[in-house]
Amino acid sequence: VRRRPEPAPGADDPVWGGVYHGPREYAKTLPDQTAVVLSTEDARVTPVLAFVERFMTLPGGGYAASVRGEVDLPDGRIEEGSSYFLKDDAGRRLSGLPVVDRRLFAGPNADMARAILLSRIATGAQKAHARRTLDFIWTRLVRDGHVLHSAEGLHDWPGDQWSVIEAELAAGRPERARKVFARQDTPALRALGPNPYLSALRKRLARN
Fold first, then answer.
1. What is the pLDDT of residues 114-141, one digit of tens each?
2. Could you give the CA distance from residue 42 to residue 19 in angstroms, rounded to a whole number?
3. Range list of β-strands (E), the chain
């Protein structure tokens, strides 16, 4: 039912922190950063958290979907990530900053919020923003226990539902998690047969 984030395949950015999407793909996506935050590699987690806080945190709650892996130069040309990301901070800023995709998607945002809330090394400010993110999702993207994928009203993304359930449990708010789970725990779902994850989740919700 629920697929866990896979390890991010790209290298780490030694200047700004954060992890690239792939060996030759310099975009930084929110799920890739989440995969690192969920890992036990503290030396990687700290700069990724710093990058997310600096470049992907949205005012009032939420995280941007991605940061572009190339830069539009003032003269209209495009500088590829393979050269842009070799520069130091001053050199990058001289060329300009990459475009940030500020769209907010419920599932990836809930996953990042959960990762930060579970992190041993995330700061208090980072954890506070994670909680604001969950509040934003709950007030803007949840309708009668059903999680919309985005503000555009896209829905029926099962992963979003499980992501919000897990994040709200990590935040210590089981009442919210139970409301979303109640919309998913249908006869049709039960008819699929035994599922270890769902069985464990029901027990966790009953305990809280």
1. 999 999 999 999 999 999 999 999 999 9
2. 14
3. 28-29, 66-67, 71-72, 78-79, 100-101, 142-143, 146-147
Q: Which two tokens stand for residue 97?
A: 């900053």
125 and 51 Cβ atoms separated by less than 8 Å: no
The vertex-130 CA angle with 126 and 135, nearest 5°, equals 145
Nearest partner of 24 among 98, 102, 99, 83, judged by Cα:
83
> Tokens 């994670």 — which residue?
130
pLDDT in tens, 158-188: 899 999 999 999 999 999 999 999 999 888 8
Give the least confident one: 80-89, 115-124, 128-137, 145-154: 145-154
The amino acid occupying position 33 is: Q
Q: To 10 degrees, what angle do helices 106-118 and 158-170 make?
A: 30
Q: Which two tokens stand for residue 28?
A: 């930084």
